[in-house]
């Protein structure tokens, strides 16, 4: 195959150029030459035996033309031309391509397609391997030599230095090359909740140069999950046919608004109170809603519940709003199956509340001068037949809209203050271009006053983020060790001053508590950190050391000699170390994405988590440790395979009692929030006596 695709042939007569099939939807002409003499000439294609005025289809060029009618071809001299076929038209069904003048029915030049033409096709691969941080996806697709489509992507966003990474070799490693995210930037990856995204390789790199794609934490050299790239790819070349529609950043400093993107289609609804802009993209559509509304109101827009008329019942809508409580914007997928507020089964309900999922991907939002703007993306197909409506690839479909109050759950009340009526007929062809019925835009381009999501780490308001109070365990000889998320900037790093790769020890279901132990006393750790040495993200043996960093198993011999190990590591006859406390896996996981920023306390944070324990033959490992009489006053419980998962063990003499009420000292620490926080009020010099 040529670097331009499958060669079809050369245009003949009054035009010239080499024609290639890039894919089943795209043609490419190398070095197109045409004098521009036809008064009504277009690229014309069809499946009859030869070009004719009776049967054929215009291929608009350029594809991003403005207006309702495609432009007439002008003069071209050795121009490389990319032709995107109209929706529903496939290269494999065509017999010819012509430069055709409609007015005079003249073929200025054409090429016949070979009968056995087989255009390159996208390649569907497996889903991401699920290793850590809730990463999962649908089947990854190689769209062309540089573009990768990842559907239904889930990732909790807790990795501090996580990126899309590609490289060569049998497995992902830190020597790979970063790939920009779906916005085209190299910021550490945010959380994803079932979103469909596309990413593109940078520079001259193509999928033929790589062996794997990974979601990878570079700082901690951790592979959260990956998909292997086969070597026998016969995918379309990358000629710009899959250029990403970069919507913009969600950084609050820019208002989270659009950057470098313009919609050329817009209609007004609700007597001009709401505007809807749209643009069709690969297998989906980007929709931008703007409305004059209060901060405690929502705006909704979507597909009517009945074909050919306006009907609320059965409608598939997106409900968008600004939440002043967390300073964020939301777009949620709703089904309207009854004229009532959602009761958990019926009414105006979020799909996710009644057994479905949110198939709307939030892109950005802003609020300026009383106008809320939210952009989101949805598929043309019905992702869930029970909840979603299809947007037809060709033709118009009835739409509905409403503005109304949010209830205490931040859900839409059915009773709207303003909505489309049953006698109104609003229809949109979501694949159309240049349909502009909005004389002026409600949403201003100046976003200097716009609200946005929580500030990025570079903004000054980060200082307002308060860390959680450290947890403390005292007087317990049985301790259960599990793993879980670190709690972002309120948790592990704020408490310890150390970086973290997104996982930490939970002792008795408390995030990295300081543990008080007595010299000469025996303690039992029941360790449930995973026992899969082939998957480091699920292999966390616990050991006790004097190292603030831990990670004994990944250290060099010289580095290991710098640590003193007190329990959890033994040596084979050859002198090689091995961990002894690797047991079954129990992990606290995010229900959705990491909610540390919204959680004022650790107790609030635990409500956003769910405990998942693997079933099987593995049992918790038992690490029994008698504290040496000469143990130093500060030790650490750590992970054998990773740095920075654990925290302090405060070693005290027998009989030591923190100066707190005895009733508190004897309360059961197994209840996750029965903490000895009173100890924290004492000067550190008293604690470490």
TrEMBL record:
The keyword Repeat applies. Residues 5-114, 126-230 form the DM13 domain. Residues 272-404 form the DOMON domain. It comes from Daphnia pulex. PANTHER family: SKELETOR-RELATED, THROMBOMODULIN. Coiled coil: none annotated. The keyword Repeat applies. This is Protein Skeletor. Keywords: Repeat. InterPro entries: DM13_domain (IPR019545), DOH_DOMON (IPR045266), DOMON_domain (IPR005018), Spindle_Org/Thrombomodulin (IPR052126). It holds the Pfam family DOMON. CDD domains: DOMON_DOH (cd09631). Residues 443-464 are annotated as: Disordered.
């Amino acid at each position: 195959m040529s670097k331009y695709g499958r060669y079809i042939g050369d245009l003949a007569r009054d035009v010239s150029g080499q024609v290639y099939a890039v894919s089943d939807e795209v043609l490419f002409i190398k070095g197109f030459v045409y004098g521009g003499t036809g008064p009504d000439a277009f690229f014309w294609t069809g499946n009859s035996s030869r070009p004719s005025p009776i049967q054929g289809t215009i291929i608009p060029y350029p594809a991003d033309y403005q207006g309702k009618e495609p432009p007439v071809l002008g003069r071209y001299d050795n121009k490389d031309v990319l032709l995107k076929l109209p929706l529903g038209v496939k290269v494999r069904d065509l017999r010819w391509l012509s430069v055709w003048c409609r007015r005079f029915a003249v073929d200025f030049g054409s090429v016949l397609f070979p009968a056995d033409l087989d255009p390159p096709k996208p390649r569907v691969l497996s889903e991401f391997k699920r290793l850590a941080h809730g990463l999962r996806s649908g089947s990854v697709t190689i769209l062309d030599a540089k573009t990768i489509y990842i559907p239904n992507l889930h990732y909790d966003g807790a990795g501090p230095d996580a990126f899309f990474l590609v490289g060569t070799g049998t497995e992902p490693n830190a020597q790979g090359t970063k790939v920009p995210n779906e916005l085209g930037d190299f910021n550490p990856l945010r959380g994803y909740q079932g979103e469909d995204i596309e990413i593109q390789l940078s520079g001259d790199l193509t999928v033929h140069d790589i062996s794997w794609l990974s979601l990878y934490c570079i700082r901690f050299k951790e592979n959260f999950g990956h998909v292997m790239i086969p070597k026998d790819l016969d995918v379309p070349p990358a000629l710009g046919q899959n250029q990403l529609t970069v919507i913009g950043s969600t950084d609050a400093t820019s208002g989270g608004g659009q950057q470098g993107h313009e919609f050329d289609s817009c209609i007004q609804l609700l007597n001009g109170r709401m505007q809807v802009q749209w643009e069709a993209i690969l297998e989906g559509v980007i929709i931008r809603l703007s409305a004059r509304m209060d901060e405690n109101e929502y705006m909704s827009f979507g597909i009517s519940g009945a074909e050919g008329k306006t009907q609320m019942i059965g409608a598939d809508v997106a409900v968008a709003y600004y939440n002043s409580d967390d300073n964020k914007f939301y777009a949620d997928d709703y089904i309207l199956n009854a004229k009532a507020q959602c009761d958990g089964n019926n009414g105006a309900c979020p799909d996710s509340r009644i057994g479905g999922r949110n198939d709307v991907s939030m892109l950005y939002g802003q609020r300026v001068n009383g106008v809320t703007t939210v952009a989101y993306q949805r598929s043309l197909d019905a992702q869930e037949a029970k909840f979603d409506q299809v947007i037809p690839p060709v033709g118009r479909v009835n739409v509905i809209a409403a503005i109304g109050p949010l209830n205490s759950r931040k859900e839409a009340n059915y009773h709207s203050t303003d909505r489309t009526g049953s006698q109104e007929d609003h229809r949109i062809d979501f694949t159309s271009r240049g349909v502009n019925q909005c004389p002026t835009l409600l949403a201003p381009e100046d976003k200097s006053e716009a609200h946005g999501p929580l500030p990025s780490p570079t903004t000054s308001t980060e200082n307002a983020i308060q860390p959680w109070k450290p947890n403390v365990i005292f007087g317990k000889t049985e301790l259960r060790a599990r793993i879980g998320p670190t709690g972002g900037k309120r948790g592990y790093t704020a408490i310890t001053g150390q970086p973290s790769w997104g996982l930490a020890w939970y002792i008795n279901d408390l995030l990295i508590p300081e543990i008080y132990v007595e010299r000469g006393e025996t303690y039992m750790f029941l360790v449930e950190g995973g026992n899969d040495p082939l998957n480091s993200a699920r292999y966390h043996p616990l050991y006790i050391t004097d190292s603030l960093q831990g990670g004994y198993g990944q250290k060099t011999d010289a580095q290991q000699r710098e640590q003193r190990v007190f329990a959890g590591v033994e040596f084979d006859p050859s002198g090689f170390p091995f961990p002894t406390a690797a047991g079954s896996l129990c992990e606290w996981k995010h229900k959705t994405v990491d909610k540390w920023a919204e959680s004022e306390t650790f107790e609030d944070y635990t409500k956003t988590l769910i405990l998942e324990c693997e079933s099987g033959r593995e049992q918790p490992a038992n690490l029994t440790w008698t504290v040496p009489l000469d143990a130093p006053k500060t030790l650490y419980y750590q992970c054998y395979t990773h740095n920075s998962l654990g925290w302090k063990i405060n070693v005290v003499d027998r009989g030591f009692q923190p100066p707190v009420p005895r009733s508190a000292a004897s309360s059961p620490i197994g209840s996750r929030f029965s903490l000895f926080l009173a100890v924290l009020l004492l000067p550190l010099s008293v604690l470490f006596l």
